[in-house]
């Protein structure tokens, strides 16, 4: 059983970091609870693999502590932490059979053979590897290999956490879905903490109960997929989650109006007050493409826009339009009446989010 | 999808390759075959001899002895150079200037011409002016490669190990560098011992370069000529006379073109056969062996 706590964690690959840019991980406090299914989501180079390697012990953090159940494990090598890790490319022992591959971690711990066999057979059964047990691992397909490397983590009784580093990168799309479901099944069955690193939001939200979104070496939001979608805590989350991402407008308070360039925006009184009261000049309003209504005639609280293009994506259409020389995206439901070049957009008031210095501010919180 | 048009003129495209192979392999080889079945006495006097030369070569006891020496030599140097090469590759620095420095140092013997290697060792082992010969003598060890066959053998093997182990080491080094870091990380998480990492990760990943190393070293050592010729001249007696030297004596020294042609062909076939058997065996080892029928 393990609760993994990161306390004031930071990591730099250079020995003498001079500025924030030298840090792959910037000051981070975070708790992964026992038995959770977590995803670590972020773009390439945001530090998610670094973080994973610090948790597994392949890297020692330059600052801060990694605690397993309250015990500091910074200096413990991976073999002394009760974790398993699945890598981006399947790691298998070429010359061994699938059975020997699965038995390898147990045999390394001098487990008696009569206990190795039932355990390996059990895990092989769960992963549907039983028919392949006597094949040489070298000749398996990529997804079978990845299942074998996963299986090596599952055979050990002492494993309390499995870390996945983009494990489905080399797997065919139709098998990805199957493997992801398998992972979920394993998670429910074994009560193991799972941390899944990915840059694919769909993968993250189907696998994890809670997602940590990383950006420039920091976790900018930790929440359920729904929270990430509905209340992005940081402009990056808004932009990164959702397809397409959130639309942002840099606004200012001028002449008792919330102005987006030359365009006054129809907003609630509360929002107007918050924009007016902001001390920073970095003020942004965010609206998801799902919450923009388009009509051909002017209605209350709408702004005139120029349609650029409409893309039919099957179940919905994606509308690209321009407002104040900036490109916006809006989702039109199926069967939406056709729109002409001149149209009007209405932003659903309750869904407009306010960001000051890139972070979400609750509207009317005073 | 089958929209290929049969056109026999396409054979013309093979022609340049055919000409090249003819000049590089077929024509020279056929000349040898030609000599091996004839007794050439003069430009207009030649007799067909059939397999006579082959029989006499195979029954020649001096050549049989040389053949056994040759096989022993190849086996001994393979048994030393392959493990030693792997060992050196394993302890070589992995990155930084040290890696480059070691690589250059280790490559030096490979850059020396073969007969120069022989000369270097010939002088090195001399009792009067050679560093090794002199030191051994001063230590009271009776070492003399011109009189003692054991000393001559030991020196030739040592020379070959010095000259060629770097090649094996370099091949293995490149093989080791191509193993992704994740394999070592996974092995640590699986709590594999150092030996297990070597046995189940490094050695399997080295198989391909090792096949090349063994084949190269076998062919090289089986044809070794210049180095022992310069160092010992095949002596003392004929104790270090290897096949190539016997062949050179027969073909160039005695101008016995018929027998030496037959000899060359047998020599060539032996190398071909051994290499083929070795390669096929290794490649078969990597295949799946379905224990209960069906794969």
TrEMBL record, chain A:
Residues 4-241 form the ABC transporter domain. One of its GO terms (cellular component) is ATP-binding cassette (ABC) transporter complex, substrate-binding subunit-containing. InterPro entries: AAA+_ATPase, ABC_transporter-like_ATP-bd, ABC_transpr_FbpC, ABC_transpr_MalK/UgpC-like, Mo/tungstate-bd_C_term_dom, NA-bd_OB-fold, OB_MalK-like, P-loop_NTPase. The keyword Zinc does not apply. Keywords: ATP-binding, Cell membrane, Membrane, Nucleotide-binding, Transport. PROSITE patterns: ABC_TRANSPORTER_2. One of its GO terms (molecular function) is ABC-type ferric iron transporter activity. SUPFAM superfamilies: MOP-like, P-loop containing nucleoside triphosphate hydrolases. The keyword Membrane applies. This is ABC transporter domain-containing protein. It comes from marine sediment metagenome.
TrEMBL record, chain B:
Keywords: Membrane, Transmembrane, Transmembrane helix. It is found in: Membrane. Residues 67-278 form the ABC transmembrane type-1 domain. One of its GO terms (biological process) is transmembrane transport. The keyword tRNA processing does not apply. It is a multi-pass membrane protein. This is ABC transmembrane type-1 domain-containing protein. It comes from marine sediment metagenome.
């Amino acid at each position: 059983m393990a609760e993994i706590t990161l306390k004031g964690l930071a990591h730099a690959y250079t020995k003498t970091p001079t500025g924030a840019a030298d840090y792959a991980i910037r000051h981070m406090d975070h708790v992964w609870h026992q038995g959770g299914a977590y995803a670590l989501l972020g773009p390439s180079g945001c530090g998610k693999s670094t973080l994973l390697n610090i948790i597994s012990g392949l890297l020692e953090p330059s600052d801060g502590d990694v605690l397993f159940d309250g015990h500091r494990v910074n200096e413990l090598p991976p073999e002394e932490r009760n974790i398993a890790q699945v890598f981006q490319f399947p790691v298998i022992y070429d010359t061994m059979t699938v059975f020997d591959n699965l038995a390898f971690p147990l045999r390394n711990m001098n487990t008696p053979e009569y206990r190795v066999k039932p355990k390996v057979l059990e895990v092989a059964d769960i992963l549907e590897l039983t028919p392949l047990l006597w094949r040489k691992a070298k000749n398996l397909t990529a997804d079978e290999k990845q299942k074998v490397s996963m299986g090596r983590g599952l055979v050990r009784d002492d494993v309390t956490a499995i870390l996945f580093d983009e494990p489905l990168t080399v797997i065919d799309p139709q098998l990805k879905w199957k493997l992801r479901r398998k992972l979920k099944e394993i998670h429910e069955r074994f009560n193991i903490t799972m941390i899944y690193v990915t840059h694919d939001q769909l993968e993250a939200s189907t696998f994890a109960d809670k997602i940590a979104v990383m950006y420039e070496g920091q976790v900018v939001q930790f929440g359920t997929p729904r929270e990430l979608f509905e209340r992005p805590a940081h402009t990056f989350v808004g932009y990164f989650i959702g397809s397409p991402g959130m639309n942002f407008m840099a606004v200012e308070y001028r002449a008792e109006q919330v102005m987006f360039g030359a365009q006054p925006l129809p907003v609630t009184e509360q929002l107007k007050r918050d924009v007016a009261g902001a001390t920073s000049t970095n003020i942004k309003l965010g609206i998801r493409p799902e919450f923009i209504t388009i009509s051909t005639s002017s209605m209350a609280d709408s702004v005139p826009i120029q349609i650029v293009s409409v893309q039919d994506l099957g179940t919905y259409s994606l509308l690209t339009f321009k407002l104040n020389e900036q490109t916006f995206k809006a989702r039109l439901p199926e069967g939406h009446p056709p729109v002409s070049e001149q149209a009007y957009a209405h932003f659903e008031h309750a869904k407009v989010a306010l960001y000051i210095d890139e972070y979400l501010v609750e509207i009317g919180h005073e | 999808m089958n929209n290929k048009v049969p056109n026999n003129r396409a054979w013309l495209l093979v022609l340049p390759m055919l000409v090249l192979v003819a000049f590089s392999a077929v024509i020279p080889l056929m000349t040898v075959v030609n000599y091996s079945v004839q007794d050439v006495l003069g430009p207009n006097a030649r007799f067909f001899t059939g397999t006579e030369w082959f029989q006499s070569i195979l029954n020649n006891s001096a050549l049989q002895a040389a053949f056994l020496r040759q096989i022993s030599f190849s086996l001994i140097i393979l048994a030393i150079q392959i493990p030693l090469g792997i060992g050196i590759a394993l302890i070589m620095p992995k990155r930084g200037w040290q890696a480059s420095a070691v690589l250059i140092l280790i490559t030096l013997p490979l850059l020396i011409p073969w007969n120069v290697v022989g000369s270097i060792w010939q002088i090195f082992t001399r009792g009067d002016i050679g560093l090794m010969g002199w030191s051994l003598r001063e230590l009271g060890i009776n070492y003399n490669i011109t009189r003692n066959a054991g000393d001559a053998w030991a020196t030739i093997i040592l020379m070959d190990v010095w000259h060629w182990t770097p090649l094996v080491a370099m091949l293995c080094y490149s093989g080791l560098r191509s193993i992704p870091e994740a394999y070592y990380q996974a092995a640590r998480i699986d709590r594999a011992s150092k030996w297990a990492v070597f046995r189940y990760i490094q050695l399997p990943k080295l198989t391909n370069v090792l096949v090349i190393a063994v084949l190269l070293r076998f062919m090289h050592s089986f044809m070794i000529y210049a180095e022992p010729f310069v160092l010992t001249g095949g002596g003392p007696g004929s104790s270090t006379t290897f096949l190539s030297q016997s062949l050179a004596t027969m073909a160039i020294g005695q101008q016995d073109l018929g027998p030496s042609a037959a000899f060359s062909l047998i020599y060539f076939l032996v190398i071909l056969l051994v290499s083929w058997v070795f390669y096929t065996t290794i490649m078969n080892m990597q295949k799946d062996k379905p224990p209960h029928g069906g794969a």
